[in-house]
Design a protein that fits this description.
The chain is an alpha+beta fold. It contains 9 helices and 16 strands. The radius of gyration is 18 Å and the shape is globular. It starts with a strand and ends with a strand.
């Protein structure tokens, strides 16, 4: 399983927390029909994106990015000790998988300069915080945590009306510790990493592009969850806030990077998760590198 990639003068490490069956494909992708699933079952199973019971296999991971100037964590997975009763594999975890993966990549929590979240769902912000003496504290004590303004405003507004455990334990403690920055869509870190708005899955979902002179790599977040959504870009998933917008964004993104050398670093595709976008009929494929 490939965990490390290079792009120009940048090193990218995959920090994998889980890779396992998630939900039945027909439930996860509401517009997927049994007929279309049957047509794509063989290659999906060969890619280890679908198991024998037609359950989608998803990887949950962060990307650790080392530029010449900064060490950046993109998304922070599920976390430990978090109450997530909807998903048993996430609920009140106590394992050391994530921290061992960070150590294997040669970093400690004190080495991270920035934490950047594509959006604020539970499996992308969980390790923002850890439980210490009964309190949620920033996991990465020296890091600045960057939250997109549209995304932050949406979720904190929702949280004010109906409290969200995810915002309560993984976002607000960062705000209270004054380790956060609310940034706009034109924000960049140095000359290496920039925001690319990709709304639809959530109102303020963003991707991140990486590279000094060109997009050497792009981190797509939850723009797409499974390789079948690259093949059929209009196929949105059950939790997309705006399924039509997500579909439009997805096709635009895939057209943008199709037949380029940009590494597409997906959040949830099965290992190796990183590939180059190539045209496949009326759709696309993320061909592994």
């Amino acid at each position: 399983m490939s965990l490390t990639f290079t792009a120009g003068d940048i090193t990218i490490h995959r920090i994998v927390e889980q890779e396992t069956g998630f939900l039945p494909a027909l439930d996860f992708l509401p517009s997927l029909t049994p007929e279309v699933l049957a047509e794509n079952r063989a290659w999906m199973q060969a890619a280890k994106a679908l198991d024998a019971q037609d359950v989608l296999i998803l990887c949950i991971q962060s990307y650790l990015v080392k530029t010449p100037h900064h060490t950046i964590l993109i998304d922070s997975c599920i976390g430990n000790d978090k109450p997530r009763p909807r998903f048993p594999n996430w609920n009140m975890k106590t394992d050391d998988t994530y921290m061992r993966a960070l150590a294997a990549a040669g970093v400690s929590v004190g080495d991270i300069d920035y934490v950047m979240c594509t959006h604020l769902h539970a499996d992308h912000v969980g390790w923002n915080t850890r439980l210490e003496n009964g309190r949620w504290v920033p996991t990465f004590p020296k890091a600045r945590y960057l939250f997109g303004k549209t995304e932050f405003d949406y979720w904190t507004g929702m949280h004010a009306k109906t409290p969200s455990p995810t915002i309560e334990d993984s976002v607000m403690p960062i705000v209270e510790a004054k380790r956060h920055e609310i940034v706009g869509d034109s924000h960049a870190i140095g000359d290496h990493i920039r925001i690319l708005p990709t709304p639809g899955h959530t109102p303020g979902h963003v991707a991140f592009t990486l590279g000094r002179d060109r997009d050497e790599a792009v981190f797509s977040g939850d723009l797409m969850h499974s390789p079948i959504q690259a093949r059929y870009p209009e196929m949105s998933m059950m939790s997309d806030v705006d399924q039509a917008a997500a579909a439009k964004t997805r096709r635009s993104f895939l057209e943008r990077y199709c037949d380029t050398d940009t590494l597409c670093c997906t959040a949830h595709f099965p290992s190796p998760s990183v590939g180059k976008i190539r045209r496949k009929g009326d759709g696309f494929a993320c061909e592994a590198v």
